[in-house]
Amino acid sequence: MGRTYRVAIAGATGAVGTEMIRMLEKRDFPVADLRLLASERSVGVKLSFRGEPTPVEKLTEDSFRGVDMALFSAGAPRSREFAAAAVRAGAVVIDNSSAFRMRADVPLVVPEVNPEDAARHQGIIANPNCTTIIMVVALKPLHDISPIRRIVVSSYQSASGAGAKAMQELLDATRAAIEARPYTPTVLPHPYAFNLFSHNSDIGANGYCQEEMKMVHETRKILHDEEIRVCATCVRVPVLRSHAEAITIEQERKVRVDEALAALAAAPGVRVVDDRAGNTFPMPILSNEQDDVLVGRIRDDLSCDRGLALFVCGDQLLKGAALNAVQIAELLC
């Protein structure tokens, strides 16, 4: 029998935390002991793991004694507060927040793209932003054929990226709209039902929001290429859990559409959905609860001699967060 690991999940009751539990079970991760951690208001709640009820404990600096791996999805402030304590206790932290992503001493890892980076961790490995993960899984096979020099991406982002409360707000707002009842949003800044709006992260001096700049900086770090030019527009759309992205790339040499399709079809973590005759391409409804990133609508960019355009969908809670974190943990095994 191989080695087993004592695992903790910080933020276990959240939308991503509960998916982390499910992914550990689904992928048969060698868990010897699972410690579920959350804020004081969740203490005593029991979540199921491998058919057994597991009580939630309060997240404190003492929560990580004897833990080998700590998966964090409790938000950046909690990661900054407690990750160091986990590392001091001997755990490797896999953090889903933005707290450490751009630190030079913290690897930013997507296992299908840069698995070798995980080996150089100093106690913390960062999970990239969900939109970045979904994009780079789709672009890595094309980048390997011919280096990508420029990316223009528009993301259509689901409620799950803003957490379980945003998902519930979308459901409640939609019911209210259908029933012609007034509804005042409390989680997101604008009406969500039958609406879309620019991503609700803060806008910087350059006119780009934080979410867009994450895609710029994280893509360069993951692909080890600071020269890649990235222009991102991030939009929140009334979809529950899968992000979609319209991506146009410019490469060093012209890559044919058939060449791109072959590379994508052979790539790990990718499923090509490209039925031109049936006009069927990646959709959130197809990618919900799926591990793979769906890629389709691969075509020449008519505005650029060395360009391709494609459309991508991925489950934000899975490949965009929980699944990617568990795959990083598998690399450490």
Could you characterize what this model shows?
- Helices cover 29% and strands 26% of the residues.
- It is globular.
- The longest helix has 16 residues.
- The strands form two sheets. Strands 3-4-2-1-5-6-7 form a seven-stranded mixed β-sheet, with helices on both faces. A seven-stranded mixed β-sheet has the order 9-10-8-11-14-13-12.
- It has two domains: 135 residues, 3-Layer(aba) Sandwich (Rossmann fold), CATH 3.40.50.720; 185 residues, 2-Layer Sandwich (Dihydrodipicolinate Reductase, domain 2), CATH 3.30.360.
- The model has no long low-confidence stretch (mean pLDDT 97).
- By secondary structure, the protein is an alpha/beta fold.
Low-confidence stretches: none
Shape: globular
SSE order, as H and E?
EHEEEEHEEHEHEHEEHEHEEH
| Proportion of residues in helical segments | 25-40%
Average pLDDT, all residues: 97
Q: Please tell me how large the radius of gyration is.
A: 20 Å
Spatial gap, N to C terminus: 13 Å
Main sheet: which strands, in order across? Answer: 3-4-2-1-5-6-7
Q: Decide which structural class fits the backbone.
A: alpha/beta
